[in-house]
Design a protein that fits this description.
The chain is mostly helical. Helix 1 packs antiparallel against helix 2. It has a two-stranded antiparallel sheet with strand order 1-2. The protein has helices spanning 30-52, 57-90, 103-119, and strands at residues 16-17, 20-21. A hairpin with a 2-residue loop joins strand 1 and strand 2 (20-21). It is elongated, with a radius of gyration of 25 Å. The two termini are 38 Å apart.
């Protein structure tokens, strides 16, 4: 019997799109998706009405084909947009019971320290405590929404 060891993947890396890291500036946006949904809703209403109004069969069939193709395109667009959201949230995710900071928070802190050192200012000591006027990162009221997963 052969034993297989599994490694835990803590940071799978950036999400790939066509072999390159996914960039929000590339690909369809939310406006494109909204336009697709408006056209889709219009065609979904118009297609059965075209049959009831006895339009030519070829026109009703064309409308039905347009609905099917637009469903495919809108489905692919929503998948792309969901992947963008996942790529954006991946670096900022915090487990609910976490007492430590995430990798993204550590990188942000080191970038802020480097910027402060470049400006000649003295960087504050990072002892893991928040300043009195800041919200502590573990504070549930600091969450962005009511449900965190």
């Amino acid at each position: 019997m052969r034993h297989v060891q599994f490694r835990a993947v803590t940071s799978p890396g950036p999400i790939k799109y066509k072999g390159e890291p996914l960039e929000p500036e590339r690909g369809p946006g939310l406006g494109c998706f909204r336009f697709q949904l408006i056209v889709l809703a219009f065609l979904i209403v118009l297609t059965p009405l075209s049959v009831a109004w006895r339009w030519p069969d070829w026109l009703s069939a064309g409308l039905l084909l347009a609905v099917i193709l637009l469903l495919l395109v809108a489905g692919q667009t929503i998948i792309f947009l969901l992947r963008l959201v996942a790529a954006d949230r991946r670096s900022r995710r915090r487990p609910l019971g976490s007492a430590t900071r995430t990798v993204g928070e550590l990188e942000d802190a080191s970038a802020a320290e480097a910027a402060a050192a470049a400006d000649g200012a003295v960087a504050p000591a990072d002892d893991g405590t928040a300043a009195p006027d800041e919200t502590a990162p573990d504070d549930p009221s600091a969450d962005e929404g009511p449900v965190r997963q």
